[in-house]
Amino acid sequence: MGMIDPVLLEISAEEVESLATGVNLVWMLAATFLIFFMHAGFAMLEAGQVRSKNVANQLTKNMLTWAVGILVFFAIGMGISNNVGTILGGGSGSSALTQFGVDGGYDMAEILFSAVFAMTAATIVSGAVAGRAKLRAYVTYTFLLAAVIYPVVAAMVWYAPGADAPILDSLGFADFAGGMVVHGVGGVAGLTAAWILGARMDKYNDDGSVNIIPGHSLTFAVLGTLILCFGWFGFNVGTAATVFNPESAADGVLELGDFGYVGSVAIVTALGMGLGALGASSVSLALNGKVDTLYVANGMLAGLVGVTGPTDLITPMGAIAIGFIAGAQLPIVFKLVDEKLKIDDVCAVFPVHGTAGMLGLILYPLWSLEGTAIGGGVISGGILSIEASAFAPQIIGVAVITIWTVAATAAVWGAFKAIGEARVTPDHERDGLDLAEHGVDTYPEFGGPDVATDGGYTDDKAIRTDGGEVNEEKRSSSELRADGGEPNDGELKLVTAIIRPDRLGAVKKGLAEIGAPSLTVTNVSGRGSQPAKKGQWRGEEYTVDLHQKVKIECVVADIPAGDVVDAIADAANTGEPGDGKIFVIPVEGAYQVRTGNSGQDAV
């Protein structure tokens, strides 16, 4: 690449080296921060795929993964990785077991860069064990993964100071940005932990049939996916390049580093992402007749995982092929795991991170930059560009990493299970881990109150947030009736209405206009004349016969119940089945807590 003569810039060799180091450091830290931001993506993706009663638990696990993992990797994991790598690579000498004494400049930045990769592997596991794992068991496993399990894998592929090369690297195994070291480890570990833990309650029937348990928010899942896609460029492209060559900079010459292929890495990453979504979409359409949204999201990630390992080794045609294959295998492998193996992998971490990472590394020699081109002229390197000698090392590397990860993970979760510490109790699982493990409710209320908390009206006759005003005349108990009687024959009446959620605003306004703004609203579901619908979750169809509704309860004394019924009916009517029903029930008594009033005065 081009060189810049320092004489022309009138700077010394020391200044050139300092400039190169600073630019390289900024590049590395920018990539590190992008990868760290992926934790936000994992948190949203996983939270969207679990039920609402487990959202806080999933978010907490993601935060604690980083909190525990960064300390453990810094204090133990990086040292273990360096020393194990040296021993397995046949080198001599030893490295420090902790990183506390490392130089505070470039070396510390490299440790942080390594740590964000390690924590990515750790956080993947949380999605597989969602909804039933004890928090203490998960945190302990994260400690061990960051301290030993991941560092041993990284030592076999990436880290071996004092040795000629890490042991798997010396055999010819290549994993550029962690398709197997990071994602494969996370996916395999997640599947193993989910197998040891067992399925969520009610996931499988006695006859082996599967009950679909949809997650609570596709919006969260898709947002998390796109955040991960954004951070992934730090994962791959950040690994690909060093801006300036440190060796030439030491001699006083600015020479561009690995930027000669950084553009290729970027386009391979982008193509893998897009083709993964297309692959998953195509198979979803073939299997179910519809393009499942979650499969599209998971397919984007599977495509990225597929090209992450060989991202510097494959042609753009390879990115297209591997990305599509990684996305296409996702629905098939998920159904195999879910329906045949009966392993409850909640967030599909094995087909997204496990098999996608394996396939990318095993198949890459078909589209290798170093291979022999076949069908040239299509896209750089031809339709195929085969490097046959690379198949065996890739298969061996994938097998060794898989065996180690399964054995270590099974030992840890098996020990937890043996002492009864792996899984929450059935009661806690039924109530949700948000309450059982954290004492919180992620969605504690159905909207905020629109009216005064005592059910009365404000002294200053403030305009209500529903757009209506308190009608003092309508509330007057001295209102005369043509028949000489009193509203509701002097009794209290409870009007209960079950309506469509989208009509709630119109109903509140209608009630305010007749002087009955006080009401209680509850989020409910029910079944009536409205036809059942079909839903899909990862391509599996399930029946939706309990429709989302809201229940409005309004106790009236001086407002005729008939007027309330009419106001609700007019506002809630759409003319379609499922508009709801209204019930009027006598109320025996009432008591207002704040004032002590009872009977009609309480209302």
From TrEMBL:
Record's subcellular location: Membrane
Record PTM O-UMP-tyrosine, positions in chain: Y542
Protein name, entry field: Ammonium transporter, Amt family
PROSITE patterns: AMMONIUM_TRANSP, PII_GLNB_CTER, PII_GLNB_DOM
GO terms assigned for molecular function: ammonium channel activity; enzyme regulator activity
Protein family according to the UniProt entry: Belongs to the ammonia transporter channel (TC 1.A.11.2) family.
Keyword field: Ammonia transport, Cytoplasm, Membrane, Phosphoprotein, Transmembrane, Transmembrane helix, Transport
GO BP term, example: regulation of nitrogen utilization
